[in-house]
Specification:
Helices cover 76% and strands 4% of the residues. A two-stranded antiparallel sheet has the order 1-2. The longest helix is centred in the C-terminal third of the chain and has 30 residues. It is elongated and about 50 Å long. The protein starts with a helix and ends with a helix.
């Protein structure tokens, strides 16, 4: 995977692949969108940082100047794709509200999450939207729940944008600094993915806390 992303780095295709994965992830949460973002950032951080000369590894700065631009572009791409996917799910649930409402009603967990979301958005506190972006499948519950509940775009979109930017910045930073410190390897990528999963587990725990809705 890293080798394929490395061959695509510097071309628009890597952004297309990452964007499609993030957009579709809201409908199919098992897609590895976070992994792809981290892997792309790791590859971008490691590209051109070292070169072999006479059998010795020396530092090279041929592409070092392009790192900030590539990282910023990847972050903006990931955040934009996340918002686009959120709004697509939100609109779909808005139009098919009855069907999605029945599906959510069959799960006590989804029903509770929908109620907490509605309370948070009504009170002007959308911290749960940001937390849900990191929690496993939380993004899907929040986006579909906001649509089913017919929350206005003004209520949902700003928090979706903030959540997407936070998630993209965190994921890209993990991949970038992992690549800088440990190089472009499976070890750095695996550690970065573990850090992303840790953040997701923490977010899921906070969302399950009984006093979270009251805090929002």
């Amino acid at each position: 995977m890293l080798e394929k992303l490395g061959s695509l780095s510097g071309t628009p295709w890597v952004y297309v692949i990452v964007s499609l994965s993030i957009v579709l992830d809201v409908f199919v949460p098992i897609l590895p969108s976070g992994f792809l973002v981290i892997a792309a950032a790791t590859t971008a951080a490691g590209t051109g940082t070292a070169a072999a000369v006479g059998g010795a590894e020396v530092t090279s700065s041929v592409h070092a100047g392009s790192h900030p631009a590539e990282i910023f572009s990847l972050m903006l791409c990931a955040a934009s794709a996340s918002v686009l996917g959120d709004m697509a799910a939100y609109r779909l649930a808005w139009r098919g509200g009855d069907r999605f409402d029945r599906a959510i009603g069959r799960s006590r967990r989804l029903t509770a999450a929908q109620k907490r979301l509605g309370t948070a958005l009504t009170r002007g506190g959308g911290g749960i939207v940001v937390l849900a972006r990191f929690a496993p499948a939380g993004r899907s519950v929040v986006s579909l729940g906001a649509g089913v509940a017919h929350r206005t775009v003004r209520e949902f979109l700003p928090w979706s944008a903030l959540a997407s930017l936070a998630w993209a910045a965190y994921s890209v930073s993990l991949g970038y600094f992992g690549g800088q410190w440990l190089g472009t390897s499976w070890v750095s990528t695996a550690l970065s993915v573990l850090a992303l999963f840790a953040a997701g587990s923490a977010a899921a725990y906070l969302m399950r806390r009984p006093d979270h809705a009251a805090a929002d």
